[in-house]
Task: inverse folding
């Protein structure tokens, strides 16, 4: 009897948080609607066409929003602005369109020449510039941008629909009627999503799983001390949260909504962010959940009997807690991350060959007897915007290839467990998540801990109202505020689109707890949780790696797209007052080996330098560096007294209409995850003319290897 084929299972996770403020049907952010156009229907249809079995995890709070968009009971601020007749748009509406409707990857934008044209016209402008010119922007630009924004977010299947295809072919010069047709087609498209998943689940093509209602980190709800249990040096909030009953209610509500939407309960659960612990298992054992997925780091930390090896990773395990037996499969971390973060950078065929080659190597090294399962578990929505054609060629090619390889057997996780019940048990399940095997993505940073403390205070107040008519309304807000996404975005150094909105949404939700109890919210909730830099000019920190051409010019719209932005607010306040400033805006960011900076000047940089002005950049790492850009470029290392103690090779610098430079990180003694602080001043004959920021430094972290993976738009 020959060696059994290698079982391979994909577990795609679909999730968006609740973006609507308390007691509102208008979401502040549009990501649920946009991913519905791009991903949620395409993904199961790829499986249907290929006959490929896969497992999909649908977050209940996502299901609730999709149903709301489908029946018209939920909308979002972006959609409401885009529905307005041009004559009814306020100045702020026009500014928001020009500022916010370019939120997409470069891949998505590049498919629409008119969108690139508009980005080159408006997308590089700072907030002050946009406020000054938004009223002057032609109506055709505003209308085209509102249409192209939605078109860019359309997935491959929706692009082929007659109404959408006609608009893509038209390309520009859209009418209000074009926009209305696209918006109605989008609503009809979203209405197909839940019925499609139900049909494919019912006919056995796919399997569905769930996670707790509002996607909370269950171990932290059970006890925030789990943060330190998973990582000993994790700082904890001063006010602990210990509410296993909330974890139970989140699971219960998720199952109830799932049954209402699909007519039955799922057997499997993806714990939010792959987060597990013994306390979480104790809660889960009370529900009819037969299996869960987790990360291989958790298996490694759990010290399985016989040690950690391929045999351990590619077999299902069981835990027996409270008389309930729950099976666990552990994902292959490297292969899952390859799909999510690396294969977008490769031609589709090369990526497929690499993936198949990795599976072949795994299969070759496994014992000749026994059934083994490689679990690929990852986000099912965010990765594709970085692939050509939204990942269509990769996914269709990969599914087809795996279906014809006789040494591979694609399966659904639940089917595999049913046919191959685990024979090994874990006596201890280590606490942790699928990110670094700990919970530090959601707890430990001062901003994250402050959010936990605000929530803990409100949750404690609710306990005083148990048994009253105020308890349930207040708990409804508590459960939303317990979602993981709020804590994910806190403490990320200003990275990510919509951060201010996330901050306001969380604080509004905690305030709503007190209002439901008819108590005054604490004054602390009026202050943002996300702290700024030492100067209000910082608009964002870097969120993606950049690779600009150092030529002193705006070469193309892609090259600085992921950079941080610092804006000289004084420049824009004086734009029409005749005041002159040297610095207009500063962009900064990284690739794997270099720190980049672009200085946009009030008039051509070459002319400013010709007048004798020097641009002096001070950069602090574990040493202090001064880079002076004038008629010559110097890089000096400074001693503690501020005097030059050593010379370094000058960085690559270009001076033309603006200034661009690239500094090797090794020349700055900067390593992965270390902090860089920078400031810029201009001077002439030693006299300082400007300093940015006005005091202190702008700080940012040297990106880790998975920097882009951690900083998706949503």
Result:
């Amino acid at each position: 009897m020959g060696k059994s084929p290698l079982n391979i299972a994909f577990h795609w996770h679909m999730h968006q948080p609740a973006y609507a403020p308390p007691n509102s049907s208008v979401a502040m952010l549009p990501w649920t609607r946009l991913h519905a156009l791009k991903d949620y229907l395409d993904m199961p249809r790829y499986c249907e066409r290929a006959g490929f079995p896969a497992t999909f995890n649908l977050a209940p709070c996502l299901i609730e929003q999709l149903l709301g968009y489908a029946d018209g009971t939920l909308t979002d601020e972006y959609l409401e602005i885009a529905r307005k007749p041009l004559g009814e748009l306020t100045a702020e509406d026009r500014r928001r369109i020009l500022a916010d409707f370019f939120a997409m990857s470069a891949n998505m934008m590049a498919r629409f020449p008119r969108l690139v044209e508009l980005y080159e016209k408006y997308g590089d402008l700072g907030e002050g510039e946009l406020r000054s010119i938004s009223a002057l922007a032609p109506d055709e630009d505003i209308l085209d941008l509102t249409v192209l924004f939605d078109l860019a977010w359309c997935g491959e299947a929706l692009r082929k629909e007659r109404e959408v295809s006609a608009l893509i072919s038209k390309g520009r010069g859209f009418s209000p009627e074009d926009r209305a047709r696209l918006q109605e087609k989008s609503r009809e498209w979203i209405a197909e999503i839940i019925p499609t998943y139900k049909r494919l689940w019912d006919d056995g093509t796919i399997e569905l799983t769930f996670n707790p209602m509002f996607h909370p980190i269950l171990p932290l709800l059970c006890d925030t001390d789990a943060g330190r249990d998973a990582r000993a040096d994790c700082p904890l909030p001063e006010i602990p949260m210990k509410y296993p009953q909330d974890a139970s209610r989140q699971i219960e509500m998720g199952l109830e909504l799932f049954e209402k939407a699909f007519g039955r309960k799922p057997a499997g659960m993806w714990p939010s962010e792959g987060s597990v612990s013994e306390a979480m298992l104790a809660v889960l054992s009370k529900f009819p959940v037969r299996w869960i997925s987790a990360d291989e780091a958790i298996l490694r930390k759990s010290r399985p009997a016989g040690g950690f090896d391929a045999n351990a990773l590619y077999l299902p395990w069981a835990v027996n807690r409270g008389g309930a037996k729950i099976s666990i499969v552990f994902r292959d971390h490297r292969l899952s991350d390859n799909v999510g973060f690396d294969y977008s950078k490769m031609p589709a065929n090369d990526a497929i060959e690499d993936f198949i080659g990795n599976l072949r190597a795994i299969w070759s090294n496994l014992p000749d007897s026994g059934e083994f399962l490689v679990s690929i578990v990852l986000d099912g929505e965010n990765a594709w915007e970085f692939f050509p054609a939204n990942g269509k060629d990769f996914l269709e090619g990969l599914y087809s290839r795996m279906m014809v390889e006789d040494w591979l057997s694609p399966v659904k996780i639940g089917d595999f467990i049913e046919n191959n019940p685990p024979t090994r048990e874990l006596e201890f399940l280590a606490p942790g998540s699928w990110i670094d095997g700990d919970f530090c993505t959601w707890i430990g940073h001062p901003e994250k801990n402050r959010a936990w403390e605000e929530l803990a205070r409100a949750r404690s107040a609710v306990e005083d109202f148990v048994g009253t008519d105020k308890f349930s309304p207040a708990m409804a807000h508590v459960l939303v505020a317990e979602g993981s996404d709020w804590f994910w975005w806190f403490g990320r150094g200003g990275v990510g689109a919509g951060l201010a909105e996330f901050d306001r949404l969380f604080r509004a939700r905690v305030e709503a707890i007190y209002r439901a109890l008819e108590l005054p919210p604490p004054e602390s909730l009026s202050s943002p949780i996300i702290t700024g830099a030492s100067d209000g000019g910082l608009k964002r920190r870097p969120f993606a790696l950049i690779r600009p051409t150092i030529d002193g010019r705006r070469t193309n719209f892609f090259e600085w797209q992921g950079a941080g932005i610092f804006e000289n607010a004084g420049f824009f306040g004086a734009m029409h007052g005749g005041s002159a400033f040297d610095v207009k805006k500063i962009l900064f960011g990284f690739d794997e080996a270099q720190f980049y900076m672009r200085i946009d000047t009030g008039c051509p940089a070459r002319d400013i330098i010709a007048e004798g002005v020097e641009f002096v950049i001070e950069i602090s790492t574990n040493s202090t560096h001064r880079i002076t850009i004038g008629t010559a470029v110097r890089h000096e290392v400074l001693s503690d007294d501020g005097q030059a103690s050593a010379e370094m090779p000058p960085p690559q610098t270009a001076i033309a209409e603006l200034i661009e430079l690239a500094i090797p990180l090794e020349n700055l003694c900067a390593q992965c995850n270390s902090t860089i602080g920078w400031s810029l001043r201009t001077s002439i004959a030693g006299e300082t003319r400007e300093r940015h920021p006005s005091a202190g430094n702008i700080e940012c972290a040297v990106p880790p290897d998975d920097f882009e993976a951690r900083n998706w738009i949503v």
